[in-house]
Structures are given as structure tokens and as C-alpha cells.
Amino acid sequence: MHTTIQPNILYFGTSVVLISTRNENGTANLAPMSSAWWLNRSCMLGMSAKSQTVHNLQREHECVLNLPSTDLIPAIERLTLLTGRNPVPESKASNGYRFDADKFGVAGLTPVTSQLVRAPRVRECPVQLEAELVRIHPFEEPSSLVAIEARITRVHVDERLLMDGHPNYIDPAKWKPMIMNFCEYFGLGEQLSVSRLAPVFGPKAKE
């Protein structure tokens, strides 16, 4: 039996992403978000145009998309309700946000120099994706939400996540991403079956 409802959110489960960008004064900003989806070498990010991250992206045209594993939930929590915007936008202030210039320090995370972009990577994140801005799309007008299209230019992965015998593939059994499921943190369960929907390897690769 199905029923019709009006939920406040439709977070059916997406990866948490820690986005690092450069502020106008050259310092680093770090912001967690969870409205992200991936296609080929590109990513679409859903964010508020009022955020410091979006302001930095509009100016710098680059960022790093750091993907935390489930053991970094405490670090993500320390970043909750912080913003790099000063003064804090009224809409965020009313929701309890406060300004903090040292996001890495507050979270207890370590900045690492990137190779192709000026924004730092997060050492503790097992997956770090350097990216360049393609374009920003207005979303749900007249709200402040935007969809940010980014192209991945370099991929850094903890070698412990790699598939045995395949140095350019991540083993999904080893990767434990942090998932935002209806605004609550979850991990992944065990693999249920082999998928034929979008196989990673073609017939020759399996031989």
C-alpha cells in the first residue's frame, strides 16, 4: 500500500563531499555538502549561492572535492553550522551558523598542496578530486540554490582502496563512503550481488 506525502526533503542518499576552495585573501575554506552526483569525469553540486564556497568558485574557477570515509564523521560534525562568510548571511545566522576563518583547524584536518589547482586537498580523505568549474546553473528560481558543474582534472586515491591487479580502479568492497540519507549519516552495507547495470570491466578485462 502506497500513500501520498509531502516530505520536507528528498535526500534519498548521496555521498558527503568536503569542498576545499581558496578565499580572496589566499586562505583555505572547507565546507561539507551532500547534494552531489557524478557522470563520467564530471560532477554536479547543489549548493546555496550565498555560501563562501560558491563565491570562491565564481572567482577562482577551481576546487577540490574531498570524499570522507565514515571514520571522519566527527570532523564533519565540527564543521557543522560554520561558514566562511563574514558577515554571516542573515538566512544562515537565523539557523545558528557562525563565522570561522580556520575551517581546517576547527575540523582537525590537514591541508595538502594540490597538483593542478590552488585549493588544498584534505589529507585525511581517502579520495581527493581536483576539479575546475565548468558553469553555474540557477536552480529552483527564485531561491538561492545553484547547480555547479565541475570537471575532474586529477584523482588522488589512498592506495589501500585500489583493486588488486587493477591499479586504476577503486575496489568498491574497500571504499566506505560517508552517506547522507535523509539528513542522517550512514555507511554502506555488504555487496548484495554482481551488477550488470553498469559493469566496470568489459569482457576482455574479465578474461
From TrEMBL:
Name listed for the protein in its UniProt record: Flavin reductase family protein
Gene Ontology molecular function, alphabetical: oxidoreductase activity
Gene3D superfamilies: Electron Transport, Fmn-binding Protein, Chain A (2.30.110.10)
EC category: oxidoreductase
EC number: 1.5.1.-
SUPFAM superfamilies tied to this protein: FMN-binding split barrel
InterPro entries: Flavin_Rdtase-like_dom, Flavoredoxin, Split_barrel_FMN-bd
Domain Flavin reductase like: residue ranges: 12-160
